[in-house]
Design brief:
Blueprint lengths: L1 H27 L2 H26 L3 H24 L1
Helix pairs in contact: 2-3
């Protein structure tokens, strides 16, 4: 029983250390970098939503529209990757 408690305590310490490192790393980011990350996360979420819709859509016109939207999202993501 004690061994399980010790491993959980060590795990908690590791997580605490990693969270401190993450906070220190986040502080080092510039405002522009934070904005780029935020935009990238939004685009990735939108892309996932469009992909999911594409899997279930049977209407050819709507499928084509979603495919164009997916291509546009990919283009925006590639632009953001170039600026990083």
């Amino acid at each position: 029983m004690a061994r399980g408690w010790e491993s959980k305590a060590v795990e908690g310490q590791v997580q605490e250390f990693e969270s401190k490192e993450n906070r220190a790393h986040k502080r080092q980011l510039t405002q522009a970098q934070v904005e780029i990350r935020r935009q990238k996360e939004i685009l990735l979420l939108s892309r996932a939503r469009v992909e999911k819709q594409l899997q279930s859509i049977q209407d050819a016109r709507y499928r084509e529209q979603l495919s164009r939207a997916l291509a546009d999202l990919d283009a925006q993501l590639s632009k953001l990757n170039e600026t990083e």
